[in-house]
Specification:
This protein is of the alpha+beta class and 115 residues long. The protein contains 3 helices and 6 strands, in the order ββααββββα. The strands form 2 sheets. A 4-stranded antiparallel β-sheet has the order 1-2-3-4, with no helix packed on it.
Length: 115
Amino acid sequence: MLVIVGDHFVYARNRAQDLPNAKSLTALVSESSKTRAQIIGMLDCELSYGTLRSGRLPWEIRFSTLPWREGRSLNFPDEIKVDPHGLPIPRIPTKGWSVPINTFVHDDLNALFPR
């Protein structure tokens, strides 16, 4: 999910697979005989906050649950293009893509997601 308000954005990416029911994430990891790869998969999600233009670079991530992403550019906008009707769509067709709310006009979208 990408939410843009003024010069600020929040990007959230879910895990590849939903977690099973457990008392807590700590309990899920410690009470099971999961492999390292499975544990990493349970932890692999992202919540990042940043700025579009007022940072050192466009789409700069200021804070993230993935610390190595801080200070870098968000790559998600590179995956988006604007169709002839003015709607944001993925550059590569993907399953489950939707734009539930879009309040940007065509010119704003083209500025955010250049071709």
